[in-house]
């Protein structure tokens, strides 16, 4: 094969590659749109009145996730199944965002951390690599860290809205999350950077709890929580 | 540190007793259990990555040494010897690549691509340099990949294996150099060819420079054909490639113009000063 023939062949490969990337970008753009819609919907909980109809908002968000699942189906068809990591960076951001949104919905519903399997199910993808388009563990953890910042904000706003018991529950949750993350040996990458922000969320929530307790505002709340146990 | 932290926190709460129950994280809760499994998964992944980085570095070093060895190649009688020696070295590199391939069994190669890419590029450079010296043509990516299919039967491994498990299936491992790694390796190759050209003039060889400039021009044309369809790194190399080509073309020009004036035995002197000039330029850029 002559040199020029070789380069023509290589150019063909590169162009094909670019086409795939273009296709992926299109789907990812639509997904980002859906993610924004879900986020807007869930942002409502930070408003005073929003606390009353959290279940309704979650319900609506879950409906949007069915759109996400269809979009995921279409994303899967855009590239060869065994080349996930080749194009990973294109959907990494939106996937982390969607993990956060799913985790937020699940938290609001049940006040528990969504498992990796459950997120994968909500998004219509697989939990492990062997079975196809999957949720990378680092993306899952990143999404969970976003949830932590959102909950710190929720703690503040729930006090404003007069809900004094929620910050305590958030505090317990975040503390457990923090202990969980402390088990991980993170490399010096983006996940590690985001994890470094977790301690500020923990601190923020502790401040809120402190403010409530020195004013005795959490008295009934703690009593209620104690009675539950 | 965390002990003091907790203590101070408890002072904040009048209902210390109850708080403590809530605050203390149960180490066997579902959340903690799943994070323990995440720890294992991440550690496994990072370990593999580190092993691959190390292999990649070894591959880089050995490939570089092979290139240095090949630069000693002249049409002198020991030429064949050097080629054989380089083949032995490249075989050693390929054994390392086999280990990489074994690490990547069942994995998505692109997940660890960043770890091994520098090594593979250097290998492409070495193997294509040797191929050029042998055949005066460019090795194709398919040819490179053909050499990166390994079976358990070759090499000393077989002896250990067959003795322990006779019925074991002969496994094959393979690694594919990506088109982009190949292109980057070839772009580096042109730098080596430029050096080869200059030194061969120094040795009084006046045919090689013309062959080389011809060959480099073909590669340059190929790269300009790809232009910016390729990734950023490829277009970045294009600039250096242009410089190498210019140096080779200038060398050929000088040979043509002054070659007829200067007696053959003095050519080497003319060029050794010319080489100095180019080296200086290089150290400046």
How does this model look, in words?
With 229 residues, chain A is an all-alpha fold. Chain A has helices at 3-43, 54-76, 88-110, 116-123, 137-160, 166-182, 190-214, 219-228. Chain A has two domains: 1-135, Up-down Bundle (Methane Monooxygenase Hydroxylase, Chain G, domain 1); 137-228, Translin, domain 2 (Methane Monooxygenase Hydroxylase, Chain G, domain 1), CATH 1.20.58.200. Chain A has eight helices and no strands. Chain B is mainly alpha-helical and 285 residues long. Chain B has two domains: 40-153 and 171-177, Methane Monooxygenase Hydroxylase, Chain G, domain 1 (Up-down Bundle); 179-276, Translin, domain 2 (Methane Monooxygenase Hydroxylase, Chain G, domain 1, Up-down Bundle). Chain B contains eleven helices and two strands; from the N terminus they run H-H-H-H-H-H-E-H-E-H-H-H-H. Chain B has helices spanning 2-12, 16-23, 30-71, 79-103, 113-135, 141-146, 157-164, 179-202, 208-226, 232-259, 267-284, and strands at 149-151, 172-174. The interface between A and B is large, with 49 and 48 residues. Chain A: It is found in: Cytoplasm; Nucleus. Chain A: This is Translin. Chain A: One of its GO terms (cellular component) is nucleus. Chain A: Ring-shaped heterooctamer of six TSN and two TSNAX subunits, DNA/RNA binding occurs inside the ring.
Cα-to-Cα separation, first versus last residue of chain A? 77 Å
Indicate the CATH topology of the largest domain in chain A.
Methane Monooxygenase Hydroxylase, Chain G, domain 1
Can you write the helix and strand succession of chain B as a string? HHHHHHEHEHHHH
How many helices of chain B in DSSP terms?
11
In order across it, which strands form the biggest sheet of chain B? 1-2
The end-to-end span of chain B amounts to 51 Å
- What is the name of the CATH class of the largest domain in chain A? Mainly Alpha
Low-confidence stretches of chain A: none
Q: How many domain regions of chain A?
A: 2
Low-confidence region ranges of chain B: 1-22, 161-168, 281-285
Whole-number radius of gyration of chain B? 28 Å
Largest sheet features of chain B = 2 strands, antiparallel
Global structural class of chain B: mainly alpha
- Could you spell the SSE succession of chain A in H and E letters? HHHHHHHH
């Amino acid at each position: 094969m002559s040199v020029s023939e070789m380069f023509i062949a290589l150019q063909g490969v590169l162009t094909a590659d670019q086409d795939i990337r273009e296709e992926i970008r299109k789907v990812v753009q639509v997904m980002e749109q859906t993610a924004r819609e879900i986020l807007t919907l869930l942002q409502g909980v930070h408003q005073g009145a929003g606390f009353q109809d959290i279940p309704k908002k979650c319900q609506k968000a879950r409906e949007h996730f069915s759109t996400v699942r269809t979009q995921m189906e279409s994303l899967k068809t855009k590239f060869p199944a065994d080349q996930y990591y080749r194009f990973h960076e294109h959907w990494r951001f939106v996937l982390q965002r969607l993990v956060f949104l799913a985790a937020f919905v699940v938290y609001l519903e049940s006040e528990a951390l969504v498992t990796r399997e459950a997120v994968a199910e909500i998004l219509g993808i697989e939990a492990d690599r062997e079975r196809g388009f999957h949720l990378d563990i680092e993306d899952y953890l990143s999404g969970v860290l976003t949830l932590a910042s959102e909950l710190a904000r929720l703690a503040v706003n729930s006090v404003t809205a007069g809900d004094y018991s929620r910050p305590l529950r958030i505090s317990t949750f975040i503390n457990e999350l923090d202990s969980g993350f402390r088990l991980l040996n993170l490399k010096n990458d983006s996940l590690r950077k985001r994890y470094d922000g977790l301690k500020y969320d923990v601190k923020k929530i502790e401040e809120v709890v402190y403010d409530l307790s020195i004013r005795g505002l959490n008295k009934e709340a703690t009593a209620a929580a104690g009675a539950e146990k | 540190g965390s002990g003091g932290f907790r203590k101070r926190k408890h002072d904040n709460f009048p209902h210390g007793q109850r708080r403590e129950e809530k605050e203390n994280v149960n180490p066997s809760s579902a959340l903690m259990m799943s994070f323990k499994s995440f720890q294992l998964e991440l550690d496994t992944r990072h370990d593999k990555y580190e092993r691959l980085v190390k292999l990649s570095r070894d591959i880089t070093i050995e490939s570089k040494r092979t290139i240095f060895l090949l630069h000693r190649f002249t049409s002198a009688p020991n030429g064949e010897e050097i080629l054989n020696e380089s083949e032995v070295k490249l075989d050693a590199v390929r054994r390392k690549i086999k280990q990489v391939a074994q690490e990547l069994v069942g994995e998505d190669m692109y997940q660890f691509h960043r770890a091994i890419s520098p090594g593979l590029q250097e290998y492409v450079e070495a193997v294509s340099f040797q191929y050029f010296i042998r055949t005066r043509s460019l090795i194709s990516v398919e040819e490179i990949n053909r050499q990166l299919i390994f079976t358990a039967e070759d090499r000393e491994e077989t002896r250990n294996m067959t003795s322990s498990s006779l019925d074991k299936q002969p496994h094959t491992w393979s690694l594919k150099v990506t088109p982009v790694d190949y292109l980057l390796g070839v772009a580096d190759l042109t730098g080596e060819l430029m050096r080869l050209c200059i030194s061969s003039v120094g040795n009084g060889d006046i045919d090689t420079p013309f062959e080389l400039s011809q060959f480099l021009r073909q590669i340059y044309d190929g790269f300009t054909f790809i232009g910016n369809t390729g990734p950023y790194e490829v277009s970045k190399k294009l600039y250096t490639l242009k410089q190498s080509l210019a140096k080779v073309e200038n060398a050929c020009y000088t040979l043509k113009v002054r070659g007829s004036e200067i007696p053959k035995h003095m050519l080497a002197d003319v060029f050794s000063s010319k080489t100095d000039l180019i080296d200086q330029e290089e150290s400046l850029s």
